[in-house]
Structure formats: structure tokens, C-alpha cells
């Protein structure tokens, strides 16, 4: 799992050390040598888990998809951003902290607004 690119769709095989990395920054953090440049790159699709090669000198728009499962792997990278927010559980899992704005309560309906004089003896 890449901490630099949150939505990485493929892993790239480094031509210098023959290991798989999600991005060039992951390679730089784990290796002491620079990433070697090449015209033919090997990719590993994270959706179908199959490897494929692409010649970068003849790269066109149709090459932006995995040849096995048609996963669009050339997308805008989402990098983590520092955010100040209220810490809590994921709202999709536990919505106790959220108020449902769709239901409006009747302000006249209250336990103290009800007349119980006929029941008191």
C-alpha cells in the first residue's frame, strides 16, 4: 500500500533492482540507488493482479487501460493532505456523531407541554 499515492492502480517494476513499487518515492525510500530509467516498463494491475509490459516510446491513449481487465490505471494521483478535523469513527460505519437533518422534530410536542390534569387525582 503506497502512502504517497492513495489511489495507485498499478505497481511498477523497477528496472534497476527488479522489485515492485507503487511509486518512485517508495523506491527512493527503500533503496540507496536512484531509479533507473527505461523505455519499456513492466506494470502489475492491482485489480486483476496480472502483469503486463508497455513500450513508453509508442504510448498512446489506449494504453491507459490494463489489457487483461480494462482497469483505467492512468488517473490523477490523490496524495494525502494534512487536515484539521474532529477525530471519530468513519461516518459510513458509525453515524452516531452525525445529526440527521432530514427529520425535523415538532417543537410543540414535549412531555412538559402535555395536559395530564385529568389523570391526576
TrEMBL record:
Residues 1-71 form the CHY-type domain. GO terms for biological process: protein import into mitochondrial intermembrane space. The keyword Zinc-finger applies. GO terms for molecular function: zinc ion binding. GO terms for cellular component: mitochondrial intermembrane space. The keyword Zinc-finger applies. InterPro entries: Mito_Tim_assembly_helper, Znf_CHY, Znf_CHY_sf. Pfam families: zf-CHY. Keywords: Metal-binding, Zinc, Zinc-finger. This is CHY-type domain-containing protein. It comes from Lentinus brumalis.
